[in-house]
Specification:
Number of helices: 10
Protein name: Antirestriction protein ArdC
Helix content: 40-55%
Structural class: alpha/beta
InterPro entries: Antirestriction_ArdC (IPR017113), ArdC_N (IPR013610), MPTase-PolyVal (IPR041459)
GO molecular function: single-stranded DNA binding
Number of domains: 1
Pfam family, one: ArdcN
Largest sheet: 4 strands, mixed
Shape: globular
Radius of gyration: 20 Å
Order of helices and strands: HHEHEHEEEEHEEEHHHHH
Distance between the termini: 39 Å
Mean pLDDT: 79
Number of strands: 9
Strand order of the largest sheet: 1-2-5-4
Low-confidence stretches: 33-40, 284-311
Length: 311
C-alpha cells in the first residue's frame, strides 16, 4: 500500500495547489455553483442522479466553477459510452476519491481495520459529445417565502442540534454550552442572509463531542490565524455553502475578506490534506467512520441537516 500512500499524497498536493491558486486570486470559488442553482446545485452523477458526498462534492463543484461548466453533473467514461457518447478530444478527467474499509491480518490472527483511498475518474457532461442531456434549468436564488421555508426545514431537520438563542448582537457558537447565538432576524438585510449566517454557526456545532467530536473539552477555542482555527472555518464555510445551495439562497460572504483568505492559504500550504479532511467532516466522514465507496453514514448530524429536510 506504500505506492497508494504516495499516490494519495501526490493527488492531494495537486488538488490543494489548484485551490490555493484560486484563493490567491481572491476567488472563493467553491461557493459559486451553489449560489447559481437550486435543483442542480449539488454535484451529482448524471446517470444515477446520486449526489457525490464529502470531499468529492466539494471538489467536483469547485471544478465546475473554475472550468465554467453549465452544471455540476458528471459521469464516467463507461457511462458516456453506454449513453452513445464519447469524451471530446483533449478533455481531461477529474479524479474523485472513495474510501474503503480493509481488514488486515496481524500477528496472533488479530484483525486491524484501516481506511484506504481508491480513485475513480469522471467527466463533466460538458466534456461529452454525442449525447443530448436533459437538465432542468433552476431559477436564480431569491429571498421569498418559499426559500425561507426551505431554510426553516433544514434547521428543523437538525433534530439533535444545539440550543439557538438571541442573547447578543454577534453570531457565534459556544462548544462548552453547545449553544448558537444569533441576532434577531430583523437585524439582517434579508431573512435569507440570516439563515446563511445561521447555517455557518450550525456547521460549527457539528464539532461538538456529541456529534463529530472536533473540539476537546476544556480547551479554549483556537486563536484567529492558527491552523486549527483556519481548518474549522473552512469546515463551517464549505458546509454552510452546501446548505445554502439546498435552500436556494446566496451564501454569506463575511468570511471572504483578505484576512480569512490569507489564513486559509497558509493553512492549506501547511497541510495538503486539509481541504480533503475539512470537506469530509462536513458530511460526517471521520477517519474511523466510513463505508464502502465513501458513502457517508446517514445517521450523522450534518447529513441529516442537508438531506432529511431537503428530501
Amino acid at each position: 500500500m506504500h505506492s497508494e500512500t504516495t499516490k494519495f499524497g501526490q493527488i492531494t498536493e495537486a488538488i490543494t495547489k489548484e485551490i490555493i491558486e484560486e484563493l490567491q486570486k481572491g476567488n472563493v470559488t467553491w461557493s459559486t455553483p451553489f449560489s447559481k442553482a437550486i435543483n442542480s446545485g449539488l454535484a451529482k452523477n448524471y446517470v444515477t442522479g446520486r449526489p457525490y458526498t464529502g470531499f468529492n462534492q466539494f471538489y467536483l463543484s469547485f471544478k465546475a466553477a473554475t472550468k465554467g461548466y453549465q452544471t455540476p453533473q458528471y459521469l464516467t467514461f463507461k457511462q458516456a459510452q453506454e449513453l452513445g457518447g464519447h469524451i471530446r478530444k483533449g478533455e481531461k478527467a477529474t479524479v474523485i476519491i472513495f474510501w474503503k474499509v480493509i481488514e488486515q491480518d496481524r500477528e496472533a490472527q488479530e484483525k486491524q481495520t484501516r481506511l484506504y483511498p481508491f480513485y475513480y475518474y469522471v467527466f463533466n457532461i460538458d466534456q461529452v459529445d454525442g449525447v443530448t442531456f436533459h437538465i432542468l434549468t433552476p431559477p436564480p436564488p431569491s429571498d421569498n417565502q418559499l426559500t425561507n421555508v426551505a431554510c426553516q426545514n433544514i434547521v428543523a431537520g437538525y433534530s439533535n442540534g444545539p440550543q439557538i438563542t438571541s442573547a447578543a448582537a454577534t453570531p457565534y457558537y459556544v462548544p462548552a454550552q453547545d449553544k448558537v447565538n444569533m441576532p434577531p432576524v430583523t437585524s439582517f438585510k434579508t431573512e435569507s442572509l440570516y439563515y446563511s449566517v445561521l447555517f455557518h454557526e450550525l456547521i460549527h456545532s457539528t464539532g461538538h463531542s456529541s456529534r463529530l467530536d472536533r473540539f476537546q473539552k476544556g480547551v479554549k477555542p483556537a486563536p484567529f490565524g492558527s491552523p486549527e482555527y483556519s481548518k474549522e472555518e473552512l469546515i463551517a464555510e464549505i458546509g454552510a455553502t452546501f446548505l445554502c445551495g439546498l435552500a436556494g439562497i446566496y451564501p454569506d460572504t463575511r468570511h471572504h475578506n483578505a484576512g480569512y483568505i490569507d489564513n486559509w492559504i497558509d493553512a492549506l500550504q501547511r497541510d495538503y490534506t486539509l481541504i480533503i479532511t475539512a470537506a469530509n467532516h462536513i458530511l460526517g466522514l471521520k477517519e474511523t467512520n466510513t463505508e464502502e465507496l465513501g458513502t457517508v453514514n446517514t445517521n450523522v448530524v450534518t447529513h441529516n441537516m442537508m438531506f432529511k429536510a431537503a428530501s
